[in-house]
Amino acid sequence: MNTEELAAVLRVHQGPFFHGTHSRCGCRRIVLTADEWARHVAEEIQRTRENYRPRGIPMTDLVPASKIEQIVGADRHQTEHLGRAVSAEETVYILHSHECKDSGIDLRDCPFSVALDLGISLDRWADFEDEPVELWVSAADGRLLPKRRLTQGA
To answer: What proportions of the chain, in percent to the nearest 5, are helix, strand and coil?
Structure first.
């Protein structure tokens, strides 16, 4: 959690503010004492930290849908995520499944994108560069891995 994220939590929970008979946190929760407010804010910070997922080097570059199939070298699959490790660019591209794309989620939050944010195992990708592959996420370390090579146009 960085300083800005911590500051955002504190801005929501600023206070306590006295309202005649009671005090309220900035989030509107009633707190009876400054100590109770401090514990409340500490709990909210801890909850935020537990839900915070550092992205490592984030996969922030979303590739236009019109280009990703061409880059990966395969048609979008209904349920499987496909990809390509382009060695000249040192970049792994993910072609999200129709199900994933149509779900409406931010594709950067897809489990396959999150796995890519953790980095790749170069050893596991060595024999799968520059060709379309089916992808999977390792249960052991959460990293993105090639599952199998695709036949042309799969």
So the answer is: 40, 20, 45
Judge contact between 83 and 94, C-beta under 8 A: yes
Q: Is the Cβ–Cβ distance between 36 and 61 less than 8 Å?
A: no
pLDDT at site 67: 93
Calpha distance 59→53 (Å, rounded): 14
Q: Using CB atoms within 10 A of its CB, is residue 96 exposed (0-12), middle (13-18) or buried (19+)? A: buried
The H-assigned helical ranges of the chain are 3-12, 34-51, 65-72, 98-102, 111-117, 122-125
Please say whether the beta carbons of 120 and 92 come within 8 A: yes
How far is Cα 146 from Cα 133, in angstroms, rounded to an integer?
6
pLDDT tens digits along 90-107:
889 999 999 999 998 888
Return the CA Rg of the chain. Answer: 22
